[in-house]
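Could someone model arginine with this protein?
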Amino acid sequence: MWGGRFAEGPSAIMREINASIPFDKALWREDIAGSRAHVAMLARQGIVSEADAAAIDKGLSQIAEEYEADGVPEDWDLEDIHMTVEARLTEIVGPVAGRLHTARSRNDQVATDFRMWVRSANRRAIAGIDAVLHALVARADEHADTIMPGFTHLQTAQPVTLGHHLLAYFEMLVRDRSRFSAALERMDECPLGSAALAGTGFDLDREMTAKALDFARPTRNSLDAVSDRDFALDYLMAASQCALHLSRLAEEFIIWASQPFGFVKLPDTLSTGSSIMPQKRNPDAAELVRGHAGRVIGCTTALMVTMKGLPLAYSKDMQDDKPPVFEAAGLMDLSLAAMAGMVADSGFDKVRMRKAAEAGHATATDLADWLVRQADIPFREAHHITGAAVKLADEKGVALDGLAIDDLKAIDSRIDERVFDALSVDASVAARASYGGTAPERVRQQVEDARKRLEKF
Ligand code: ARG
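Reply:
Sure, complex below.
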């Protein structure tokens, strides 16, 4: 394609290091769509004849059919998807194929193709998040009053409701969703027509190609357009944060599914057995979601480091933009689908969860709060009195509400029988009815509110 002034062809090493076709063939749909939009515009502007444009367009649609049926051939000599398509077009329509590249460079071509590919990945991520969000809301509704221990430092802290816990992840994923949609908005500009870097002397209609490729408008600066990969980084950064959240959720399921916890039975469809230990049901899908987060974050780092030293405009380093994005997108698609299934189909063991909440003196704060409210004791002092009660309960091997009233009175005479109303896990969660709190009535409100938010997406 550029052999005019070269006496010798590239060495085998050059060919191999240069070839991006093994991975950028994934862009064939976008590449053909971009070329069709470009040639239609060239014809409308009188830059190529209608007849030539029609022949080129027909050839391109034939290539699309071929690739759909048989895949994209990988010839390293043709370097990348752009040259591969053009070479095939030349075979089909002859020298007229050479008119397609008028007023275009592979620099604006690849920027456009890749942007369209990343746009689709972004939309898939949003759809994947929506599936997880719907599952979280459904399960939160079902478990608005299911009591479990809430943890800090992974130590039993206070009883919470499972619905409340699940809705915490709803909030995280809604924020992720907004990052993906903000990324979509920012990338909604078409680089095509920026040519190599400086624009072109041909009288292009960039609005026309932008519209044909479903972009809001053309990019405003041709130097920026061919050298910008922010759209890919925006995707990767949104993906990293989302993967981080999915990993935390996966970790919860892994802990909950362990035998000492036994809070949840993972769906058969997302578990594996062991080849040696017949009793095992391993949370491999959750573990891989947790593992994938590391890879997604690694992909993000890879592209940031690739880009950080590049002067304007295009440099070949940028060809390395695709593998990390393709890898991360594949991992995100899988992770989102796995977590949607895990949330929707896991079986929660309410009895075990409640038992765990009743152990570990999770209602100690309720005793302290009761002392503040009923006996007007300053919280710090109430905390101290409660500490003594916890110590005694531990010594006797009972829960706080298993202590005799006389024992409690011996610790502090201001305690009376009414305290037992505050010490059950049910009373504890019901009491936490502050806005955003864990009380079942609040969780039901949060579910309702979450459903309204989902409807607006
Ligand atoms: N395969 C190249 C890439 O992905 C296409 C752009 C090549 N442009 C160039 N001037 N060599 O970045």
